[in-house]
Write a structure and sequence with these properties.
about 65% helix; 10 strands; 46 helices; disordered C terminus; flat
Length: about 900
């Protein structure tokens, strides 16, 4: 298996081997299984091929013997040279120098913290004398020999810490191990379960595969959250941390795994404080304050694994030993423990556990916990969590039924904050129920107006009853966001803009995060109607807030969908360059705040689809669609399948395209009118590529409905596609519609309409250049070809020469080095590196590995590079850079690969 990731560390280690380097090596520090030894071996194989390498390995046994780690060389010294440490140092130095025969010497030391002091002294002196370089691997740097610590403090060796692998790096390793693509959702869960540790990652992947939690579907490895795992291999990999523990310590770890947390006082009644302190010093426990001092596991992943080892019998035994204290225990942990042991849940625990499970994104568990209380229908709060869980699982009808049964059961008439929230869930359920018919109907949001009116009246009544200001403000924010979602989801963009503009204009008085969420819906309303420039400016202002993990009133469950909304409206309104900038600006910094999971996969794939990059889109949308076939809480499969059908047809994969179209027809429609409309657009384009002759009429019909609704962005999109497909009669309508919209894309459409209607190559070239600048690769290329065709047919030699000259400029056929460098000045530093590597033939995977970024991020940068340099392929990029390639070839360490 090839070495994947860690490119920054690899380069830092390689730099240490250069003659001009001020340091003589690295101390590589990381937990067991993080790949320290593999990293050193990789660096030595790539950059130390001509060197003489001395492999030294520390161990507990050898560490008890003077020079124990070097015994394999001591036997070759003369007896008189082994009688004194100074003589041994001199003898070993001479021996290694003789064997090196003038080559560079590199000492590769594994388990360096277990070296005996004499071996450490000899090795460190060789570094001090500059007779050798050293790479030393440590699990625990605090236990490093004093000699090595001295080398680090004096700057002769540098320290490199192996951080957990990024999810994208984990995905590359998993795909190599599983020998096939893996969905982003599956890769991210495996990365989380393993903590980004490569050894743990492969162990948990095998555990998941064995139990079916990760399974192969249609050539893609996907995540099935309904399957539970006992983690036999991951437990074996973690067992080293548990060796030497007493029975009482192991019992405590099991109890904490089941409960999440236990009161310190209760623990000390059963276990000696010295044993507890030992667990804490080993990093297995941590002390928290949950009203009272409490203990929890230091590593949540360890708790997950330990729970997987405990059968129902053992869980009952532990329950007899210690009952979870609901004041400090994690509610979902305690509820799962009690249910698995055959015990009953109290109503308060069932409610708090259901609420926690919903917050953690586990609606199946939430429903199980709530329904474990036989009287849940009498509780508004319980029914609220149950209906939220059912809605999250895509069961809108069941959510509405639970609310209806609660109202028939509860005749008290008591109004509470949860009564208001239940009305909002009922409105959301109604939106789901209308999803199938809203696209063909008028799309009115009136069916839910009464519910929002009731919610307003309830909130006013609660205020009169003395509801705390903070709680009232929170309810009002929830009501605003739900009404915004309802209006925009039904395509009522004018009403949404009127409703939201004033609220957004109030500033941050209700919280910066809340204002950003309001702004995301306003961005949709403006962008889809006729205020595209305003929407784009608003998107630029909102994005830094939505990606800031430190916003106190904004959690990931709210921020990620808001980011996706903004990206979608940018794509529909033609600002593909802005969408790419937002999507890829966090390259190499995956984690909190960055859009992830299937949602990220869908957004990246759709961006490629709008740009006309079929192959890149399919590489993302096929895994996403396959994952959505397993779990699709937001109803995205309909739209993703339609977009994937177009991209497959664009690649000539007609059977695959028809399969995606059948899936799009078979699954429920998304509740969002905009996403339904996107699906309809790409469905028409897909059928056109499959040979249908009805595309012109279908696009015209869609545009007419868009115009009636006030969705100008979609109307322009349909008319532009119709004209591109040859319906020049629609050019005037495209011109008229685009003229009343804001933004660069509308101006581009005006130029294209004029050029298409008048067969004007100059106008078409303007449109082509604008399209390329905005990231519309296929549109730019097709429009340029059409301009050339018209100019050649009309005998316009000047325009033909101009087009050919532009192409020569792009290909680099007649440009000198200065002109090529001038082209490259428009790229960022990262884009320059990727451009040169791609032009030299380096594959996307190799570039990603070298730069420690994901393959998808590389594709995003290449998309920007192609747009800025006006090229359409790697071949054209290679031609453009050929003039400077000779000068840079000797500096490039890239490995040549296959595209």
């Amino acid at each position: 298996m090839p070495f994947l990731g860690r490119s920054g560390l690899i380069q830092a280690m390689a730099d240490c081997l250069k003659p001009e380097s001020a340091v003589s090596g690295c101390l590589v520090v990381g937990d067991s299984g993080t790949g320290k030894s593999a990293l050193i071996r990789h660096v030595l194989s790539v950059y130390g091929g001509a060197a003489y390498v001395v492999n030294v390995r520390g161990s507990a046994f050898a560490g008890r013997t003077p020079f124990g780690a070097l015994t394999f060389m001591l036997s070759e010294l003369e007896p008189e040279s082994a009688s004194h440490p100074v003589l041994i140092l001199r003898g070993l130095t001479e021996l290694i120098r003789e064997r090196a025969a003038g080559r560079q010497v590199i000492l590769a030391v594994d388990n360096a913290e277990e070296l005996d002091e004499f071996s450490a002294m000899v090795l460190s002196q060789m570094v001090v004398n500059r007779s050798a370089h050293m790479f030393a691997a440590f699990r625990d740097f605090s236990a490093a020999p004093a000699e090595f610590m001295g080398l680090w403090r004096e700057g002769l060796l540098t320290r490199l810490d192996l951080e957990p692998m990024l999810p994208s790096e984990c995905a590359h390793l998993l795909e190599a191990n599983l020998r096939g693509p893996i969905s982003r959702a599956a890769a991210e869960e495996l990365a989380s379960a393993s903590g980004g540790n490569p050894n743990m990652l492969l162990a948990v992947a095998e555990d998941y595969r064995e139990c079916g939690r990760v399974k192969s579907m249609d050539g893609v490895w996907v995540l099935d959250k309904t399957r539970h795992c006992t983690f036999p291999r991951l437990y074996a990999a973690m067992a080293v941390r548990l060796t030497g523990l007493s029975a009482g310590q192991r019992e405590l770890l099991d109890l904490l795994a089941l409960s999440g947390a236990l009161p310190l006082e209760q623990v000390l009644e059963r276990l000696d404080s010295l044993e507890v302190d030992a667990l804490q010093e080993a990093g297995l426990l941590q002390l928290q304050h949950r009203g009272a001092p409490a203990l929890s596991l230091g590593d949540p992943a360890l708790g997950t694994v330990l729970r997987g080892q405990l059968d129902s019998g053992r869980r009952r035994e532990l329950l007899e030993i210690m009952v979870p204290d609901t004041a400090v225990a994690l509610p979902s942990h305690a509820a799962e423990w009690l249910l698995s042991a055959g015990a009953k849940l109290s109503a308060p625990l069932a409610l708090s556990a259901g609420r926690a499970a919903n917050a953690a994104g586990d609606p199946e568990a939430a429903q199980e916990y709530i329904e474990a209380d036989p009287d849940y229908l009498s509780s508004t709060a319980a029914v609220l969590e149950l209906s939220r869980a059912q809605l999250r699982r895509g069961n809108a009808a069941q959510a509405a039924d639970a609310i209806l049964r609660h109202r028939s059961f509860d005749e008290t008439g008591i109004v509470s904050p949860d009564s208001v929230r239940l009305l909002l869930v009922e409105a959301a359920s109604g939106c789901r129920a209308l999803a199938e018919q809203q696209f063909v109907a008028s799309g009115s949001a009136d069916p839910h107006a009464a519910l929002f009116g009731d919610a307003d009246r309830m909130l006013a009544e609660l205020r009169k009853q003395g509801l705390a200001h903070r709680e009232a403000a929170m309810l009002e924010r929830e009501l605003v966001l739900e009404r915004a979602r309802c209006l925009t989801q039904h395509g009522q963009y004018s009403e949404a803009a009127s409703f939201l503009s004033g609220i957004y204009a109030r500033g941050d008085e209700n919280g910066r995060g809340f204002r950003a969420l309001v702004g995301s819906w306003l961005c949709v309303a403006w962008g889809m109607s006729d205020r595209q420039s305003d929407a784009h400016e608003l998107a630029a202002a909102l994005w830094p807030i939505l990606t800031d993990v430190h916003q106190p009133d904004l959690d990931e469950g709210q921020a990620a969908p808001a980011q996706a909304r903004i990206l979608h409206v940018l794509m529909v309104t033609g600002a593909l360059d802005a969408a790419a900038d937002f999507l890829y600006q966090d390259a190499g910094t995956e984690g909190d705040g960055s859009l992830g999971g299937t949602l990220r996969e869908v957004c990246e794939g759709m961006l490629h689809a709008f740009a006309g990059r079929g192959a890149a889109a399919i590489a993302l949308l096929h895994p996403a669609a396959t994952q959505l076939a397993v779990f699709d809480p937001d109803g995205l499969q309909h739209t993703v399948s339609a977009v994937a059908a177009y991209c497959a047809a664009l690649q000539g994969q007609y059977e695959r395209a028809e399969e995606h179209l059948r899936t799009a027809d078979a699954v429920p429609a998304t509740p969002s009118w905009a996403l339904q409309r996107t699906a309809a657009h790409f469905t028409v384009l897909a059928w056109n590529l499959l040979g249908s002759e009805d595309a012109h009429e279908a696009l015209a019909e869609l545009a007419a409905k868009d115009d009636a609704r006030g969705a100008g962005a979609y109307a322009v999109l349909s008319l532009l596609s119709a004209v591109r497909l040859g319906d020049t009669a629609a050019a005037q309508q495209l011109l008229d519609t685009a003229s009343v919209l804001q933004g660069r894309f509308a101006r581009l459409c005006e130029d294209y309409a004029k050029g298409a209607a008048g067969c004007d190559p100059q106008q078409l070239l303007l449109a082509s250049d604008a399209a390329a600048a905005m990231g519309h690769e296929l549109f730019a290329r097709d429009t340029g070809e059409r301009a050339l065709e018209i100019a050649a047919g009309s005998g316009d030699r000047a325009t033909v020469r101009f087009i050919h000259r532009s192409r020569r400029l792009q290909s680099g056929e007649t440009e000198n080095d200065a002109e090529v460098e001038d082209c490259l000045r428009g790229l960022t530093a990262r884009e320059r590196v990727i451009a040169r590597q791609a032009a030299s033939g380096t594959s996307n995977k190799m570039i990603a590995a070298e730069l420690s970024i994901s393959v998808r991020t590389v594709e995003g940068h290449l998309y920007q590079i192609y747009s800025k340099l006006h090229v359409g392929s790697r071949r054209e990029l290679s031609h453009l850079l050929s003039a400077s390639q000779t000068g840079s070839a000797n500096q490039s360490g890239a490995v040549r690969g296959v595209r």
